[in-house]
Amino acid sequence: MNAQVSPDRSQLAAGFLSATHKLFINGEWVEARSGKTFDVVNPATGKLIAKVAAGDAADIDAAVQAARKAFESGPWPSMPPSGRAKLMWKLAEAFEAAGEEVAVLETLDNGMPFTMSRFVAVNGVAECLRYFAGWAGKINGETPTISAPDHHVYTLREPVGVVGAIVPWNFPLAMAVSKIAPALAVGCTVVLKPAELTPLTAIRLGQLIQQVGFPPGVVNIVTGYGDPAGKALVDHPGVDKISFTGSTVVGKSIVAGAAGNLKRVALELGGKSPVIIFPDADLERATQGAADGIFRNAGQVCVAGSRLYIHEKVFDRVVAGVVERAKKLKVGPGIEPTTQMGPLVSQKQLDRVTGYVDSGREQGAEVVVGGARVTTQGQGEGERGGYFMQPTVLAQTNRDMRVVREEIFGPVVCAMPINDEDLDRIARVANDTDYGLSSNIWTRDISVAHKLAKKIRAGMVRINGGMGLDYALPFGGYKQSGWGRENGREGAEAYTEVKSISVAL
Ligand code: NDP
Questions:
Q1: How many CA atoms does the CB half-sphere of 265 hold within 13 Å?
Q2: Cα(250) to centroid of ligand 1, in Å?
Q3: In the prediction, which pLDDT does 7 show?
């Protein structure tokens, strides 16, 4: 990886940023029917960087109609799987060719360090497209053995139809493609509603989709606000499935909204993931893992390890190690080559995170390090600065505090000692949350690791820093962390319906 970013690299995106961007509907770029636009702000400076069309219910309706047409009478579901896969590979190549520029856009829009956007926004996205292109001809029905004699039966797996994909701002492009790629592979068509805070790479995605020659209407992209645009997509009777990633609160409203035509719903929601460190763990790696797990992307990660349970024998040592790493972390604009942690995505998110730290203080937590906004160096008189937050470690926290119970979505970790060897009791502590997305265990004892892994109610258990994301590995949550799984075979099958066909012989 080339971690060095030349200071003028942001110029790569200058052409894109100077244009006012439209909606991508039926293979064409069109203005919002209302003529309205909204501002896109760079979270590292608080300054306007682009203007984007503000789609609403009328635009969503046009996009859904285009997607329906492409599904019902267009070429997409009837195209041979190899044809769909070929286009997906072409799109992956187009992303790689535009890699630097796309990564710059993601960094300017979301704030994440450039190296992260290069890896996640571009390389990861190309990988995701190729992975799911591979499933295009491999999602099959079965020939079950039934009890009745003289019958031939089989099942088909058919595309679910028009998919509404609603994605958040924390990994904007990766989230969009992780929904679009499996949907396209199995023959669905898509209407994508990106987060209003981070619409730029979704627009670039639309440009590349057009460039590589996807048929009109197969993917439609409507930038706009959650309400009206996202809500209209959820309510629309022409949509067969909503695939949503975001907050648990909005996830619940989507379930209610989808009741109209009982559309299918997949939800990838929040988390409050535990990290459990045993005294026999490789403490150097565990400490680094704990710090990375909460400070990466400024903690705006659904699987962030935000509840840190450390055995009392090593508590002070591990906390000191995480604090030391927090102090050394270079916080700054993601576009700068030395930045390790960028800003939070918005003023609202900064207020939310500092508000949580304040609530922790009020409820008796100790701020061991951090706890406040970082003011931008060189911030001019009268200028708004970026939304930078200090990496923060809280101690003296307990299960009744909001900082321990609620998803903060910022670089704030609650360190708590455990003094137990009983795995059932440790699991009860780890499971003492409404969420169940991810979890982390650090120990050299494989028996402890696997026994505890079974007891934890979460969609993912990472042992000694195990794999966070691989497109082959199912991803999703127990409890209020969501419904369904993304990635792997499950992730592709989630965009299908099963049909049973029986023949009397
Ligand atoms: P939201 O859940 O509000 O946003 C996610 C997506 O849903 C965005 O595209 C949003 O649009 C859209 N949306 C919002 N309201 C509706 C609606 N009524 N119907 C349909 N779509 C809607 O997340 P926030 O941006 O408000 O973040 C708030 C908190 O949510 C964070 O602090 C964090 O705790 C959590 N979160 C969790 C994520 C995860 O990956 N688990 C990701 C993002 C946030 P718009 O952007 O225009 O509002």
A1: 22
A2: 6
A3: 53
